Amino acid sequence: MSKKEVADLSVITRMDVAGRIMVALDYANAASAEGLLKQLEGIPCYVKVGMQLFYAAGPGFVASLKDRGYKVFLDVKMHDIPNTVKGGAESVTRLGVDVFNVHAAGGKDMMEAALEGVDKGLAAGAARPIVIGVTQLTSTSQAVLNEEIGLTGTVEQAVIRYARLAHAAGLQGVVASPLEVTAIKAACGDGFVTVTPGIRPAGADVGDQSRIMTPAEAFAQGTDYVVIGRPITGAADPRAAMESIIDSIL
Questions:
Q1: Active site residue 77
Q2: Are strands 225-228 and 99-103 parallel, antiparallel or unpaired?
Q3: Rounded to two decimals, what is the model's pTM?
Q4: Among the options 3, 66, 77, 108, which is catalytic?
Q5: Which is it for strands 46-50 and 21-24: parallel, antiparallel or unpaired?
Q6: Alpha carbons 7 and 181: distance in angstroms, whole number
Q7: How far is CA 153 from CA 26, 156, 160, in A?
Q8: What are the tens digits of pLDDT across the range 191-227?
Q9: Tens of pLDDT, residues 85-96
């Protein structure tokens, strides 16, 4: 969703907005995730399967989501030697996921190997998954970046460095906080996809996030997708929470 589209509300439909929201299925098992999916039935959002659910429910659960027509972001943040990441990328490509990510900190060779894995795993006629690089987690504060991770400079500088590296490696985009979207687009082009966690509706609990925006603010920055978990999954009425978020964007 471009800034122009955000400015011109007449071109945006509820389905458009829903299709740019990735709901994080941060559950310990498939049964719990299915409970949420039932409540959101008919809303054409992405679903994000992270490490906890993927490790518990396995590839079969992801395959079942695809069989039912869901768009899936597999958020397992691959970070290993290039050959291992190549194999992992091949495997998840065969699952038919729409988006998956690797850590940009793994370096250019590793990210290029991920794309080689996609080429190897892609079935004839299948849609190619979007591969994105993780820059800095939205829980990473300036102090954590400098004093614990050991990188100098600001968080934004670190994010842009990794975004440029991911772009050079041929990845289609990155995961970053909404605060860095404008700088990423300036550095890598408007077509470079940004997926932004750290999204909290007005009045929601910040939790363990350090760099946040509301959904409407994130789209106003020009982000392509927002990832929203606890404000929906932890709500007393998840469907109402989702509808309220869509309303706030429109």
A1: yes
A2: unpaired
A3: 0.90
A4: 77
A5: parallel
A6: 17
A7: 32, 8, 11
A8: 999 999 989 876 555 554 445 789 999 999 999 999 9
A9: 999 999 999 999
